[in-house]
Amino acid sequence: QVQLVESGGGSVQAGGSLTLSCVVSVSGYSGNKDCMGWFRQVPGKEREGIAAINSDGKIVYKDSVKGRFTISQDNAKRTLYLQMDDLKPEDTAVYYCAADPRRWLLLTGDYEYSYWGQGTQVTVS
């Protein structure tokens, strides 16, 4: 089992920055978090994957956030981060972190991630 708890959301003006954190707790098979990602969802729209990292160190981003968002993880702190710079109003959404044992999953969209956090709201005005 994997438990994920996000924090760091809030309100910011366009052009500003926020850093989201996701504390990861694993019981049982540690490989259940071999792939981790950040997703976001706006009411009435489908959830979209925006950044992912796997245990091989491979990182992928959705085109709309490339160059503005940075995904990273601190294994010692068991925390996944999303540094968001140059925020735009269209980045407003509920942001979720997710984990999955399938290292290849990243942002392929082939399957749903197995474990999800509760989400944190980001509002850009």
List keywords for this structure.
125 residues, four-stranded antiparallel sheet, mainly beta, seven-stranded mixed sheet, globular, 50% strand
Cα end-to-end separation: 37 Å
Shape: globular
The radius of gyration is: 14 Å
**What kind of oligomer do you see?**
single chain
Q: What is the ordering of alpha helices and beta strands?
A: EEEEEEEEEEE
Number of discrete helical segments:
0
Strand content: over 45%
Instruction: Compute the number of strand runs.
Output: 11
Q: Major β-sheet, in short? A: 7 strands, mixed
**What number is the mean pLDDT?**
94
Would you tell me the structural class of the helices and strands? mainly beta
Which regions have little confidence, pLDDT < 50, spanning 5+ residues? none
Short description:
With 125 residues, the chain is mostly beta strands. 0% of the residues lie in helices and 50% in strands.
Topology:
Layout: E1 2-7, E2 10-12, E3 18-26, E4 35-41, E5 48-54, E6 59-61, E7 69-74, E8 79-84, E9 93-100, E10 115-116, E11 120-124
Detailed description of the structure:
- The chain is mainly β.
- The protein contains no helices and eleven strands.
- It has strands spanning 2-7, 10-12, 18-26, 35-41, 48-54, 59-61, 69-74, 79-84, 93-100, 115-116, 120-124.
- The strands form two sheets. Strands 2, 4, 5, 6, 9, 10 and 11 form a seven-stranded mixed β-sheet that branches. Strands 1-3-8-7 form a four-stranded antiparallel β-sheet, with no helix packed on it.
- The mean pLDDT is 94.
